[in-house]
Amino acid sequence: MQVHDEDSVRYLTFDRPEVRNAFTADAARELAAGLEDLDPEPFDAVVITGTGDAFSAGGDIEAMADRDETTSEAYDRVRETLGRVAERMLTAPVPIVAKVNGDAVGAGLSLVAASDFAYAADSARFGASFVNVGLVPDAGATVTLPRLVGLRTAKELAFTGRLVDAATAADLDIVTAAVPDEALDDRIDGVLETLAARPTETIGLAKEAIHENLGRPRRDGLEREARLQSAAYDTAAHEEGVDAFLNDRPPRFE
After folding, report:
1. Given pLDDT bands bounded at 50, 70 and 90, which one contains residue 148?
2. Strand order in 117-121's β-sheet?
3. What is the percent of the chain with per-residue pLDDT over 90, rounded to a whole number?
4. What is the CATH number of domain 2-196?
5. Where are the domains of the chain?
6. Which of 69, 96, 205, 247 has a Cα at 20 to 30 A from 173?
């Protein structure tokens, strides 16, 4: 996993192209570590992508074959690796952008589903392929996928493991948009430019409100929304936004 910071963006890049960026437990731990300490002060966004012709082919099957662990040990491993990745993606106080340069299947699809934005090259394919190796969707997919595509479609994808192309993935809301392969870099750059012009702290509060309120009873959801909005009122971003509006100028968010 390559991790580097540039222009207020953290880039997390899978770097095992010889196995189509397949996941191991160590790769998941590295990804989870890269999702730590994402304070809105220095960071505007995170980009997750892959090298070579795949985003991620999911779990490393050879590594699975070599495992010798009890059910309890498997539970601990899953929770501390892919479970931790999903938790950090869903709670990160900065927006996470998936740059899907190629196929995203298995846990690769799960990462796309957990991202706040996802843009895919037209050549990319997507699949909840866990069933093909006798596994349940993980890395948060049983939480995120039904909320993106709906219950029946999530079941159909999980139960069959079928692959869908990027255009279909966009229609299903698995990705924000599918773009020509050669235009992917420019689309990501445009999204990052937009996010850089917005108050990251406010985006983090909005993300928390949306995620926390999924599935909450209405009364509890409105209570949580009010608490987060009251926190937003006390930020420099709100003060700057109001001042810019009153003085008829573009806001300059830090």
Report:
1. very high
2. 2-6, 9-14, 45-50, 96-100, 117-121, 177-179
3. 70
4. 3.90.226.10
5. 2-196, 200-246
6. 205
